[in-house]
């Protein structure tokens, strides 16, 4: 059984549905009566913003959703990127999240995989900020603050 999904868009917004780009010229509500793969414009990550490991993974999965015809190369890139991340991260919550993302992608639930990756951003930020905070604290102690 499929769930009905209703999405409201503002004038000028875009939505990516099963690889198609749809732009609306006025406020509109869309109701999906079957399963679709979609991405809202405000969740689209631009290449220049894919600066962290998880954002790079998000970008790859996003490509899989936005360009379903290029699936083989995107899946291969996903496998390589995910494998590298699993070998690099040590945080158990991040590792569990990445394994969940892998399961979702394997099941064809690409949109859900994107949501799962976004949910990991705060953990990644903590991990990446950790060394900087340590350096700042050490610097403050060294200068007598």
What does this structure look like?
The structure is a single chain. With 145 residues, the protein is of the alpha+beta class. It folds into two domains: 1-44, no CATH class; 45-145. The protein is built from four helices and five strands, in the order E-E-E-E-E-H-H-H-H. The strands form two sheets. Strands 3-2-5 form a three-stranded antiparallel β-sheet, covered by helices on one side. The longest helix has 33 residues, at 110-142. The mean pLDDT is 87.
Summarize it.
With 145 residues, the chain is α+β, with helices and mostly antiparallel strands.
Which helices and strands appear, and what pairs or packs with what?
Elements: E1 5-9, E2 14-17, E3 20-23, E4 28-32, E5 38-40, H1 53-66, H2 71-88, H3 92-106, H4 110-142
Antiparallel strand pairs: 1-4, 2-3, 2-5
Helix pairs in contact: 1-2, 1-4, 3-4
Largest sheet: 3 strands, antiparallel
Average pLDDT: 87
Ends distance: 62 Å
- Going by helix content, strand content and strand pairing, the class is alpha+beta
Q: How many structurally independent domains?
A: 2
Beta-strand share of residues: 5-15%
* Fraction of residues in helix: 55-70%
Give the number of helices: 4
* Coarse morphology: globular
Order of helices and strands: EEEEEHHHH
Low-confidence stretches: none
Tell me the number of strands: 5
Q: In angstroms, what is the radius of gyration?
A: 19 Å
Q: Can you list the strand order of the major beta sheet?
A: 3-2-5
What is the multimeric organization of the chains shown?
A: single chain
